[in-house]
TrEMBL record:
InterPro entries: Cbr1-like_FAD-bd_dom, FAD-bd_FR_type, FNR_nucleotide-bd, Globin, Globin-like_sf, Globin/Proto, OxRdtase_FAD/NAD-bd, Riboflavin_synthase-like_b-brl
Record protein name field: nitric oxide dioxygenase
High-level lineage: Bacteria, Bacillati, Actinomycetota, Actinomycetes, Mycobacteriales
Enzyme Commission code(s) on record: 1.14.12.17
Protein family (similarity comment): In the C-terminal section; belongs to the flavoprotein pyridine nucleotide cytochrome reductase family. Belongs to the globin family.
Keyword Iron-sulfur assigned: yes
Length: 394
């Protein structure tokens, strides 16, 4: 918790800092990358940097964390920081890197706010930063320990055993160990990071959900042809190639109970749901499960046939699909035309909902679920790329 003195200062200065936080985070990244160009080249997603998405996500996380020190809500803090900690662990972030961020973040704060940053204001925001940083460092230490690795030591080479087209613009890769030893297990819904060396020498990293069941023994990821890393993988990686990946992480995992499930996805957001459904089918789960998927068309729908097969293997599962373009097909049964709509979907009491897809889609689904009296704490989600969910006030 913040000290009483710092709490009073944060309460008084949060409106000013909050109004300038986007300028602060933009300047912060510029300063940090000027001093450490290797971080932009080899660690951060430079595409998100160019679009400003990472800056907005960091600004939202800092502002939300600071506000939550004034109106404590531990569940909300845990939600924000758990997602960040898992992302950091999948990148191999180490404790020493928080000092680098601190140096350039506070230099940016002083430059943007000028004389408003008195010693008292600087001390209070320094306390906020290190409270957030030390909490993340502790959470990440726990994640590394659970994975059985030293802090930051998450990378391994794997071999591509199989490459297969899953839709017109998506391929899946089945990954196995180079030496034949078992790969670490994972929880259904988790992801791993993939690092590639691009033609210009940059090492860029992206996250991909594991779309296989833990019982398979291998790891499978699905890659949609979009963005520089996914495009590189799509066009250049084939059977027997070696790929650098991280240990699996991620907190979009099934709770240890028998609550009814609602799995909601759009586009390539189907991949964690495929992994979860594969696990449920392998374990012969008999709870009530509703599967909702939205896509542009049948040809765009990755894992379309596999999704149908998995739902058919589960005795109390039902599926609803929406395609914006049905082509020559007609709406029938679970297949509808247009955008996903929960209006006619029955949701059992106590349902846990899992969402993955574009952020606007998930925010819309969340609002619809809340309107159907699904408690906020029962709505779980996964965002790939910068997490702007916190900034959106969720």
């Amino acid at each position: 918790m913040l000290s009483p003195t710092s709490t009073d200062v944060i309460r008084a200065t949060l409106p000013v800092v909050g109004a300038a936080i986007s300028d602060i985070t933009t300047l912060f990244y510029r300063k940090m990358f000027d001093a450490h160009p290797e971080l932009e080249r080899d660690l951060f997603n430079r595409g998100n940097q160019k679009q400003g998405e990472q800056q907005k996500a960091l600004a939202g996380a800092i502002a939300a964390f600071a506000a939550l020190q004034l109106e404590p809500d531990q569940a909300r803090v845990d939600l924000i920081l758990s997602r960040i900690a898992n992302k950091h662990a999948s990148l191999g972030i180490e404790p020493a890197q928080y000092a680098i961020v601190h140096t350039h973040l506070f230099a940016a704060i002083v430059e943007v706010l000028g004389d408003a940053v008195t010693p008292e204001v600087a001390a209070a925001w320094d306390e906020v930063y290190w409270l957030m940083a030390e909490t993340l460092i502790s959470m990440e230490a726990g994640l590394y320990a659970s994975a059985g690795v030293a802090a930051g030591d998450v990378w391994r080479d794997v071999r591509v055993r199989e490459r297969r087209h899953e839709s017109a613009d998506t391929v899946s890769f089945v990954l196995t160990s180079v030496d034949g030893s078992p790969l670490p297990t994972f929880a259904p819904g988790q992801y791993l990071s993939v690092a590639v060396r691009l033609p210009d020498g940059a090492r860029q990293i992206r996250q991909y959900s594991l779309s296989s069941a833990p019982s398979s023994g291998d790891w499978r990821i699905s890659v949609k042809r979009s963005g520089e890393v996914s495009n590189f993988l799509y066009h250049n990686v084939f059977e027997e190639d070696i790929v650098s990946v991280s240990t699996p992480f991620g907190d979009l995992v099934l709770q240890d109970d028998d609550a009814p499930l609602l799995l909601v996805s759009a586009g390539i957001g189907c991949t964690p749901m495929i992994g979860i459904l594969s696990h449920l089918a392998d374990t012969e789960d008999n709870r009530r499960i509703s599967v909702l998927h939205a896509d542009r068309s049948a040809s765009s729908h990755a894992h379309r046939a596999e999704l149908t097969e998995l739902v058919e293997r589960l005795p109390f599962a039902v599926m609803h699909r929406w395609y914006e373009d049905l082509g020559a097909r007609r709406p029938e049964g679970s297949l509808r035309e247009g955008r996903a709509d929960l209006g006619e979907v029955t949701i059992a009491p106590g349902t846990r909902a899992y969402l993955c897809g574009p952020l606007p889609f998930m925010l819309g689904m969340r609002e619809a679920l809340l309107a159907k009296d699904v408690p906020a704490e029962n709505i779980h989600y996964e965002v790939f790329g910068p997490d702007s969910w916190s900034a959106a006030g969720v």
